[in-house]
Design brief:
With 188 residues, the protein is mostly helical. The protein has one domain. It contains seven helices and no strands. The longest helix has 50 residues. The mean pLDDT is 79.
Length: 188
């Protein structure tokens, strides 16, 4: 049972992203805005597994979140794909304090990017209306989301990164041991 859970920690936490997104805990909000939860999972995953996996899982996260969201007119897919690719290009370093602040800044940038792309979709759809200027105050929501995402990212992303590295290390160690035993048996 322990081996099963250890290998599948990233997938288990992946399932929690839409649950937290729908749960929308008010006690973690600011100005009735929540942090952008998908980035907390996508940043460590893409940093460990690279840009292509970041792109694929950004697409999956966008599809899942768009399917559970009430408003089907706009999509989160472009922002999450772009963030997955950009996050995958970031390399891991060893300085712990810099890493914590880096997670906050990177997630803030990703939240700003995703929020801006979502806002531009709304703006372009309603540009022909005379009321498109009513959407300008939503910039305040984007900035509140950026602040909250940057505030919680050092805590959440560092823990998830540690868990993902641990599960990957255990999986790769067991895999390399199995390969060695197969080679040993094939040479005998």
């Amino acid at each position: 049972m322990n081996k099963f859970l250890t290998k599948r920690f990233p997938i288990i936490f992946f399932i929690f992203v839409p649950i937290i997104f729908l749960w929308h805990p008010n006690w973690l909000g600011f100005l009735s805005v929540q942090p952008y939860w998908p980035l907390f999972w996508l940043l460590p995953w893409a940093m460990i597994n690279g840009s292509i996996n970041g792109l694929i899982y950004g697409l999956f996260l966008g599809l899942i979140l768009d399917s559970v969201a009430l408003n089907n007119n706009f999509t989160q897919i472009p922002g999450l794909i772009l963030c997955g690719v950009l996050f995958g290009r970031i390399k891991l370093q060893s300085d712990i304090w810099v890493e914590h602040f880096k997670y906050g800044l990177i997630c803030s940038f990703g939240s700003f990017l995703c929020g801006t792309l979502y806002f531009l979709q709304i703006l372009f759809q309603n540009f022909a209306d005379s009321t498109f200027l009513l959407f300008i105050p939503s910039i305040q929501n984007i900035l509140a989301e950026v602040f909250l995402t940057g505030f919680f990212a050092p805590l959440i992303c560092s823990q998830l990164l540690r868990i993902f590295k641990f599960s990957r290390r255990n999986f790769s160690n067991k895999f390399s041991q199995e390969v060695k035993s197969v080679r040993k048996n094939s040479y005998s």
